[in-house]
Structures are given as C-alpha cells and as structure tokens.
Amino acid sequence: MIGRRLHPLLDEAGFEKIFVTPKIVYVDNSKPQLVEGFIKKTIIAMVEGVKDQAIKSGLIYPEEWEKGIKDLYKTAKKDGTFFYNFFKVVAIKS
Measured between alpha carbons, how far is 88 from 19 in angstroms, rounded to an integer? Predict the structure, then answer.
C-alpha cells in the first residue's frame, strides 16, 4: 500500500520533480498472452510462492488461503477478469 504515499515519502527524502503516475493492468480472455504471462506466470506464481510463509506467520489461515487462491485462479478462466493497479514514480535527487 505504499503507492499512495510515494510522493510525500520522496518529497520528505529530498527528491525534486516528483511525478507519480498510476498504471493499470486489465486482463480478460481477449488477451490470452496476458492471462498466461501476467496472471498465471506472474501474479499467481508470486502469491503461491509465499503460501507457507504467510500461513506460518499467522497472516492467513489455511482455509482462507485456499479460498483466495481458488478465486485468483478464476481470474484466468474464460469468463474471468483481472485488474491490477500500481504506481510508477520518476524523481530527481540533486
């Protein structure tokens, strides 16, 4: 959730000419290359990669994890959609 705090953080750190731009990724079955490359091979792989750590640390219960990952896989199905928002920042530090 740091994206919303990027400008003030960089300003406080002495950066100038700070430009924060929201970037979105929207994927549905009309973009099979993004279903495969972004949803499956990036997002799902990344989330699955922290399963043991998330459960072991108590951040989530195993039952909640299973439901969440099942729902995430639904985004890659024929009738699924996926939306991801992130922020890009460009700044200069003298």
Answer: 8
For residues 78 and 59, give the distance between their C-alpha atoms in angstroms, rounded to a whole number: 31
Question: Distance between CA 37 and CA 27 in Å, rounded?
Answer: 11
Number of domains within the chain? 1
Full domain range(s) for residue 35? 2-92
Dmax (CA) for the chain in angstroms is 50
pTM recorded for the entire structure: 0.75
The model's pLDDT over 63-88, given as tens digits with 9 standing for 90+, comes to 999 999 999 999 999 999 999 999 99
Beta bridge partners of 89: 20
- 3-state class of 16 per DSSP? strand
Compute the distance between CA of residue 52 and CA of residue 16 in angstroms, rounded to an integer.
Answer: 41
Bridge pairing between strands 81-92 and 16-28: antiparallel
